[in-house]
Structure formats: C-alpha cells, structure tokens
Amino acid sequence: MPKVTVRYWAAAKAAAGVAEEPYDADTLAEALSGVRERHPGELTRVLLRCSFLVDGDPVGTRAHETVRLADGGTVEVLPPFAGG
C-alpha cells in the first residue's frame, strides 16, 4: 500500500492541529477516510469545503475513489481561501 503525506493548509491545518502527517492509502478516498477517522469533529466538517491536489495536480470533480495515490506522493488539503 502506498505511503503518502497529507498536508493541511489554513483552516484544515488549524482543525488537524498539524501541518502534515503520513497515511497508507491506495486512493484519495482511502486517505480521506483515514483523516476523518484520526480527526473526527471540526476537520471532518472542513473537508466538505476543501479542494485537493494529488502530487500537484488538481483533483477537481473526479470521484475520490478513482484517484490513485503513488508511494511517496502528497495530498494537499486546500480549504477555500479569501483574497486572490
């Protein structure tokens, strides 16, 4: 199973209480399930509003179950940002 790093930004970082952490997951859906299990509560609510980058590529509207993760990859959790 791939080992990936999940990085949290802005409100997601505040809710997680850490900037990043490792997960074992084959897909984005599995990684996010692990995040929700490890951080029930506010982070779970923040995730509903987030967009995601996997190894620098936007996930967009793709189903999270179809987004494969590579060993050593990175998932960026991006809440909506104010400004531009």
UniProtKB/TrEMBL annotation:
UniProt protein name: MoaD/ThiS family protein
Pfam families attached to this UniProt entry: ThiS
Species, as recorded: Streptomyces albidocamelliae
Phylogenetic classification of the source organism: Bacteria, Bacillati, Actinomycetota, Actinomycetes, Kitasatosporales
Matches recorded under InterPro entries: Beta-grasp_dom_sf (IPR012675), Mopterin_synth/thiamin_S_b (IPR016155), ThiS/MoaD-like (IPR003749)
SUPFAM superfamilies with a match to the protein in the record: MoaD/ThiS
